[in-house]
């Protein structure tokens, strides 16, 4: 525990600063890390729905999905090997996230002024969705390449977003937090002043130094995060990414073309429908960007959760009415299938302004510096584990649970929405260094935090630091 740090009883104070072109550009470049993630998410489902790819690598699935619609449609694509093609990427991501703590959302939250943190952080999610849409469009284009080698182009083009983030990471500056942590105090002040567009950075700098001092007194962030006073952050680091994946979003993002083929669309229409869901997710993300720092995180979570719940119940019911338990359906009209797509779009839109961006934003803004890398590693690893899990089990689960799978996801959405209502306090506009006050005031989490655990600001030390500035 830090000694001699003054306890502030206030909270939610605003540090001076504005949106500068420099901070905007920096966050834009950092966000481009989302492109490669999104491209990978969007590309595999389209590729695995292409006949030329299936017949070459998964001949048994190819035969199975060519069977006519009087057979069980739910099991058309059920193949562990096929799902491994999609899910294996996330095992790799899981392992690397332990080393990299995944850097982008935390970088954005450290760079952004508190009152714009939501908007700038969601740049990452926006890039994920742009990557998904780009993949959907490319699949739509390459599927029609004569000779059946379009899937090679789809997979090969992943090199483009990889190149963008590689170049971006070479030009990105360090955050003030990281400069302070490594002892570059003058550079940290200069950077803070540059990104906030003001010389009046004393109070914020002071908070960052206090947070850094406290972090330095902690030698084992991994065991530290297990302390009782970090129980709220640890709980969120595990449950938020887990819940984000249990919404079932990646059933649509990974397997939209496969799902659309399952409900009777042809190859081209399936890929076109994936372009529609990809467009909806990009547009929905803008809603979040525009509202997250005004309406707050909770309002978006609660509205989005309710809309996702309703949409999933309707999609499950529409599929049940047509395909029943047997999974055989010979008369799915275009209109009927389009209504299913419409409700899938309602679901995707709601995710796009709630659990999608907030699933990254909230964990990135709640960890104090001393547990930030451990907390963020847990958050990303749990996310990747459940991404892997859903990717791996979806096609088999669809085969066994049939339309009931959509009700299972609806049940999870009900649970997570109730969880947010009771356990997630509003974090909008609160400086990260003062976030502890939010937990301290919460009806449930306050039990885990005593007044001694609240160290915010260190005015005495600040006087020394700024004497010569
Ligand atoms: C999630 C991904 C999802 C994407 C969809 C992200 O926030 O982590 O799993 O595919 O949103 O836009």
Automatic annotation (TrEMBL):
Chief location bin: membrane
This protein's GO CC annotations: membrane
Q: Which UniProt keywords apply?
A: Membrane, Sugar transport, Symport, Transmembrane, Transmembrane helix, Transport
Q: Where are the transmembrane segments?
A: 22-43, 89-108, 120-138, 150-172, 234-258, 270-292, 336-356, 377-398, 404-424
A Pfam family for this UniProt protein?
Sugar_tr
Domain of life of the source: Eukaryota
Q: Which residues form the Major facilitator superfamily (MFS) profile domain?
A: 1-428
Any idea where this protein resides?
A: Membrane
What's one GO MF term for it?
Answer: symporter activity
What is this entry's stated membrane topology? Multi-pass membrane protein
Q: Which NCBIfam families match?
A: SP
Q: Which family does it belong to?
A: Belongs to the major facilitator superfamily. Sugar transporter (TC 2.A.1.1) family.
State what protein this is by name: Major facilitator superfamily (MFS) profile domain-containing protein
């Amino acid at each position: 525990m830090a000694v001699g740090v003054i306890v502030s009883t206030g909270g939610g104070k605003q540090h001076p600063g504005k949106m500068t072109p420099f901070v905007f550009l920096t966050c834009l470049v950092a966000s481009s890390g989302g492109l490669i993630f999104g491209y990978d998410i969007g590309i595999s489902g389209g590729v695995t729905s292409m006949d030329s790819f299936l017949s070459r690598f998964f001949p048994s699935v190819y035969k199975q999905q060519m069977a006519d619609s009087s057979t069980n449609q739910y099991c058309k694509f059920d193949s562990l090997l096929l799902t491994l093609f999609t899910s294996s990427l996330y095992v790799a991501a899981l392992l690397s996230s332990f080393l990299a703590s995944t850097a982008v959302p935390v970088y954005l939250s450290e760079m952004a002024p508190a009152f714009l943190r939501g908007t700038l952080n969601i740049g990452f999610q926006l890039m994920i969705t742009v990557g998904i849409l780009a993949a959907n469009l490319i699949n739509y284009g390459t599927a029609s390449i004569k000779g059946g080698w379009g899937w090679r182009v789809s997979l090969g083009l992943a090199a483009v977003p990889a190149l963008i983030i590689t170049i971006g990471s070479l030009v990105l500056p360090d955050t003030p937090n990281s400069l302070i942590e490594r002892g570059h105090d003058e550079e940290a002040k200069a950077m803070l002043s540059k990104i906030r567009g003001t010389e009046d950075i004393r109070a914020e700098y002071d908070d960052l130094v206090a947070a850094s001092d406290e972090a330095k007194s902690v030698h084992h962030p991994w065991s530290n995060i297990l302390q009782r006073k970090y129980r709220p952050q640890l709980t969120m680091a595990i449950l938020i990414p887990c819940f984000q994946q249990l919404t079932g979003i990646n059933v649509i993002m990974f397997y939209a073309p496969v799902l659309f083929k399952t409900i009777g669309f042809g190859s081209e229409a399936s890929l076109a429908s994936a372009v529609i869901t990809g467009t909806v997710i990009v547009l929905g993300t803008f809603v979040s960007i525009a509202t997250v720092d005004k309406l707050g995180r909770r309002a978006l979570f609660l509205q989005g959760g309710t809309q996702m719940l309703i949409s999933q119940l309707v999609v499950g019911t529409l599929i049940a009415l047509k395909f029943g338990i047997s999974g055989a359906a010979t008369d799915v009209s275009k209109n009927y299938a389009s209504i299913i797509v419409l409700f899938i779009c309602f679901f995707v839109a709601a995710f796009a302004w709630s659990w999608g961006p907030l699933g990254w934003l909230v964990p990135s803004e709640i960890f104090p510096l001393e547990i930030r890398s451990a907390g963020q590693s847990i958050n990303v690893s749990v996310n990747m584990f459940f991404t892997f899990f859903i990717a791996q089990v979806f096609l088999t689960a669809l085969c066994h649970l049939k339309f009931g799978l959509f009700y299972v996801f609806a049940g999870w959405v009900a649970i997570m929405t109730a969880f947010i209502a009771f356990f997630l306090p509003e974090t909008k506009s609160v400086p990260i260094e003062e976030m502890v006050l939010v937990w301290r005031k919460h009806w449930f989490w306050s039990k885990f935090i005593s007044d001694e655990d609240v160290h915010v600001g260190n005015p005495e030390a600040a006087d020394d630091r700024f004497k010569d500035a």
